[in-house]
Amino acid sequence: MTNTRTKLQLLLLDNLIWVLFLLLFVVNAFIVPNFFTFQNIVNIFYHVSTLGLLVLAEGIVLIVGHLDLSLEATLAFAPGISVLLCRMLFPGIGAVAQILIALLIGVLVGFLNGLLITRLRMNAFLETLSANIVLRGLVYFLLPFALVNLSPAFTYAGSARIFGSIPVAVLILIGAYIVFAFIMAQTRFGRFAVATGGNPRASYIAGVRVNRIVVIAFSIAGFLAALAGLLAAGRQGSITNGMGTGLNLMAIAGPILGGVSLTGGRGTVFGMLGGTLLLSLFDNSLTLLAVNVYLVNVIKGSLILFAIILDSVKTSLRANILYRERLRILKQTSTDGRLIEQGAKGS
Amino acid sequence: MPDAETILEVRSLTKIYPGTVALENANIQFQRGKVHGIIGKNGAGKSTLVTILSGIIPPSTGQIIIKGKEYSHLTPLRAKQAGIAICTQKPETIPDFSLVQNLFLPAFEQNRLGFLKWKQMQDHTQRIFNQAGFHIDIGRKMRDLTLSEQQIFLALKAFFLENTDIVILDEVTTSFSQREQDYFYQLVREQKSLGKSIIFISHRMDEILEICDQVTVIRDAKVVETVERSSADKDQLCSMIVGESYCTPAQTTQEAAQSPFFDQIPVLNVEEFTREGSFEDIHFEVHRGEILGLAGLVGSGRTEILKAIAGIDVTQKGFIQIEGKEKKRFSKSWDALDEGIVYLTEDRDDEGVINVLSVRKNLSLSFLVSIARHFLMQNTRERTLVQNLIRDFGILTSSTEEEVQNLSGGNRQKVLCGRVASTQAKVFLLDEPTKGIDIAAKESILKSIKEKLALNAGVVITSPGIDDLLIVCDRIIVLFEGKAIRNFQRSEFNELEIYRSVQGLVSNVIDQTVGKG
């Protein structure tokens, strides 16, 4: 029933972030020196690999209708505690085990967050804010300024390049997005996640185990934060105790830019990727243009503001397009156009 | 000619919506210093009249005359200036404000410099509370008050602070306890003697008869009659409200006495269901293919009983039996769903549909588990089933991917019905499936219930009015204040009689066979 023009309008509106990204990309290709080179494009991805995983983590938590402010601390906590524990308790243990333990710690942190939020009905904002402070405090307390002499296998994911010059981190980032795009679109969990975020009470009545969905979402977020921590540690060759500081807000900005709703229920992994890349693209081109680093922050902040404005405009635009579409269909099926117009407005 | 005492009058008031007439040529005079009751069935036009008088919607034609001044329509501001205040079923207050703040909102008392005079306002509040005998600490937050206390509070605001002449009380007493009710009636009587006019809208006849001086009966969008309390009696009012009484066509005698299902094992057997303060010792059976109606006023326990059976809200006592298997009680919605019991909520927008999701995702929510292979979804299977549901329930949507919030109320309700129907349950608990939708949508939903849901399952259905129940049910149980008081077989259906029971007007109380098929 829907005609092609409406379909196209909706498609563009729903993927607005990618339209913006492509526009900016083309503009950059012309005005920014050395932008449109293979190496630079790989750099855009490499640069954003850590943040990109946090964006994915935050996006999934936002979709189930909550917020996770403990991601940036988990990023340092998981690999830091893992390496520390292994060095103290099992000196001979391999790097692979260290990596697995780090990921497990990430999952546990998320699991605990989810448990406290669902069982004790704590507010997610406050609970994860406290968790962030506690975890960061523990990292500062337990870790020396940095853990160095990490084994090459431990830093492989963050630093190695394969197939010529493609960083492994970029492949992990893309891999994670593909896996979660599949999970969110093709599994029961993904469907129940949007339902839970959209209306938890209605989902419960419809038979969705909403608490379980929320706990799983937080566990996934913890896992991805730990993975992001491994990439960050690998890239710099050490685990510093301040690692990840300040990333939380960018991790929230990414999904919002990508069309994820702050109130839950809405958003796609594909959109999150667009948000991540747009953030990175700005960073990259402004650096290449040698813009002052503080000014870069001003511009990024404005970008987020723009995204929020865009989001509200988008909603009314979308409603408007659908309204006109409904009117058109009604007019086709009826002869009395005026009465129909009233009816369509009333509904 | 309006006599000197008439403070408010509506003349030939009509409201037409596309496809339906909500109020037709209404003429009512409201007198100063009187309590004027308005009663009628659900959808009779009571709320249309109230929303016109409070200025929320304009009438299509007709005049509103307040103290001799004629208006073609009101706005909320104009109604307020003319001295009309309204208290609704859902109190509108700011939960985090104190009582003092809520009382004076938005007209806070200020001094010349614009500072708020808190001390004076507190004293004023205390004076009002003392005068009204409302014993609650003025420093408390609104959220600490119960629903009924909030309603009394708003009535106080209308009576004492805003000093309005005309106060509309729109079904405010439904959640009141006996003590609150007595207090409130006393308050209304006092205010009446001070010359205020009170318009009292209610579903409950005993209440209308206790408090009102005049009663206007509205039926099918028309004013039937305005009668003086002194000359009205319950039976006469009941007949006026119900109108042309629905009786089942005469049936063959052997069928009349007993239910056709009596020899089967019931698909659902509910026994001794009790929750303190909500319902007491409820027991009934439903058979496969049977539609059982629960009739009752708001607060009679309909919703609470269904939610308790479906494991959505837990209860302390009682058990259920499915197809004669072991006795149990559910405490999780999915446990009930797994055993084939599904609940359709009466609160469509808050507990039913998920507004930001598409029609497809809303419809498939409850059947995903049954069609999914492991954790993956079956996309083609889902699409086919969703298409079938859209066709079967006649859901009007431009595509399966349209967000549910863009659909009309009736279509959202159909989406909810479709989701519930898709579960292939053994027992459907339908809580007001026809609430707030137009006639066409209502008919198609009732048809779906009768022809599709009841085919292979037992159905328990409630409704705000009894009309719908008369159409679809095989049996009706009447609930009054949490107890089952009457049981009607289809052959005994009589609208007037059922309406009287719903109002609690039963002569020979609690018949022991209530609930048994």
Radius of gyration of chain B: 25 Å
Order of helices and strands of chain A: HHHHHHEHEEHHHHEHHHH
Count every helix of chain A, treating DSSP H or I runs of 4 or more residues as helices: 15
Residue share in helix of chain A: over 70%
Strand content of chain A: under 5%
How many domains make up the 3D coordinates of chain A?
A: 1
Here the CATH topology of the largest domain in chain B equals: Rossmann fold
Beta-strand share of residues of chain B: 15-25%
* Span between termini of chain B: 57 Å
Q: What does the average pLDDT of chain B come to?
A: 83
CATH topology of chain A: ABC transporter involved in vitamin B12 uptake, BtuC
Which spans of chain B of ≥5 residues are poorly predicted at pLDDT below 50?
250-257, 508-517
Largest sheet of chain B: 6 strands, mixed
CATH architecture descriptor name of chain A: Orthogonal Bundle
Q: Give the overall form of chain B.
A: globular
Structural class of chain A: mainly alpha
Q: Which CATH class of the largest domain in chain B?
A: Alpha Beta
Total beta strand runs of chain A: 4
Molecular shape of chain A: globular
